[in-house]
Each structure stands twice: as C-alpha cells, then as structure tokens.
Amino acid sequence: MKKSSTYNFVLAAFGAAIIAVLAQVTIPLPLIPITGQTLAVGLVVTILGTRVGTLSVLLYILLGAASLPVFSGMSGGLVILVGPTGGYIVGFLVTAILMGLYLDTFGLTIFHAIVANIIGMVVTLAFGTTWLKIVGDLTWTAAFIGGAAPFIVVGIVKAVLAAWFGVIVRRRLERAHLISFSGAQTLAERN
C-alpha cells in the first residue's frame, strides 16, 4: 500500500528528529568532534529509503540553518554551516542520495546496507575534509589528519551499526505496513 505524501512528510520529520537527537551524542576531539549525526543519517536513510530519507536530511539541515539547535552541541545557524563542520553537514545530503540510490539498485540486505553506509561515511568525510581545508586554510595533509583520519574506524563501526539496525527496523516497519516502497525494491529486499 502506497502511503500519502503527508504521511511521508511526517516520516521525514521523524527522521530529522532522530538525526537531531543523535547529533547531541558527542565525543569531543581537538578539531572536529565525533557525533551521532553520521550514525543517524545512515540509520534514517536505511530505514526510510532514498526519497523520505533524503527529505529527512534536508529538513534537518534547514532546521539547523534556521538557527534551531539541532546540530551537535545544541547549536544551529548559518554560522555552523560555513564553519569548520559545515562540510560534513552539507555532505549528509549527498550521502543520503548516494546511499539511497545504492540500496535502490542492489536491494536491502545487511551486506548492501553496510556497503551503502560505508559509501556514505566516505562521502561525508570527503565533503567535511574538503570544507575543513578551505575554511581552515589547511594543507590537504593537515585537513585529512584533522578531518578524516580520526573518524575512519569509528565511521566503519557506525556504518555497520546503522546498517544492521536499519535493516531490522525497516523490515519490521514494512511488515507492520507503516512504510512501503515500490514493488521492485520490495522484491529485491526480500532476496
């Protein structure tokens, strides 16, 4: 059964709220903190799919840009988006699209969800590191050491967790008829 656009928007708002809540889980590091945002983005896209998951991420970014305290450390505003962590946040949008497209193409299995989430981690780190280099006027080496290297192992762990929990939750929500996707995608997911 296809859900209405209003229902999908409510799901997207719920997804944005999950990202906002997990963004407050922070482990401080010198340049860029480790946060629950990336875990949340992977989880939301794995559960809600390309369209609704990407809408969730976009809504999250817009809420933060409008100065609502949804970014890590209960922060918000355009100043965050143009600051050192802005590239990661903007990268979440591209991450959501690419993850969703990967899962649409290959289907929802634990393996493919892990691959999609690792792709998402790489994309987020690439956007964040590039922006950190520009904003911080750093060399590529310094930007990589400060903006990507400390997050690779943690990112892989978060990718696996987001994939595993995401697949379980999505399948349960589908069985309960609370979310639905196109017939071709659903068949691929069952295999």
From TrEMBL:
Segments crossing the lipid bilayer: 7-25, 31-50, 86-103, 110-132, 144-169
Keywords from the UniProt entry: Cell membrane, Membrane, Transmembrane, Transmembrane helix, Transport
Subcellular location: Cell membrane
Claim: Transport is one of the keywords in the record: yes
Membrane topology qualifier: Multi-pass membrane protein
Cellular component GO terms held in the UniProt record: plasma membrane
Main location: membrane
Record's signal peptide: none
Pfam families: BioY
Family: Belongs to the BioY family.
Stated name of the protein: Biotin transporter
Organism: Lysinibacillus sphaericus (Bacillus sphaericus)
